[in-house]
Amino acid sequence: MKNKLVAILFLLVAVVNFGYAQEHTSSSVIKLEQTPGKFTVQSLTLEAGTYQFEIANKGINHEVGFVIAPKGKPEQKYHIKEGYVQKTIKAGETSLTKQVSLEKGEYIYFCPLNPTPHYTLIVQ
């Protein structure tokens, strides 16, 4: 009887911890590459939710970054700060953003250091 009680308690703790981990690590990682003057993925359509963006510097001989902003508002005051990479990215390296919660709407993404066009990010 005691062994069954211990097993049930263990199972309950495991289920609660699993649920907590799922809730706090539920962002998807979107991988993007920058090459000289452009991103290789030039538009994105995502569901509303929480994401991290992993940006790779492929062949650019200086550091690059990443910006997400509402469509038509590329100015720094409108940037989604969680969408900045955690460090500028040297050639051959990658960096992640923090978790970014995106609601339905239209956004843009671009690099302010490797002048790229403003690419479309649609959140449904």
From TrEMBL:
Residues 11-123 form the EfeO-type cupredoxin-like domain. InterPro entries: Cupredoxin (IPR008972), EfeO_Cupredoxin (IPR028096). Keywords: Signal. SUPFAM superfamilies: Cupredoxins. Pfam families: Cupredoxin_1. Residues 1-21 form the signal peptide. This is Cupredoxin domain-containing protein. The lineage of its organism: Bacteria, Pseudomonadati, Bacteroidota, Saprospiria, Saprospirales.
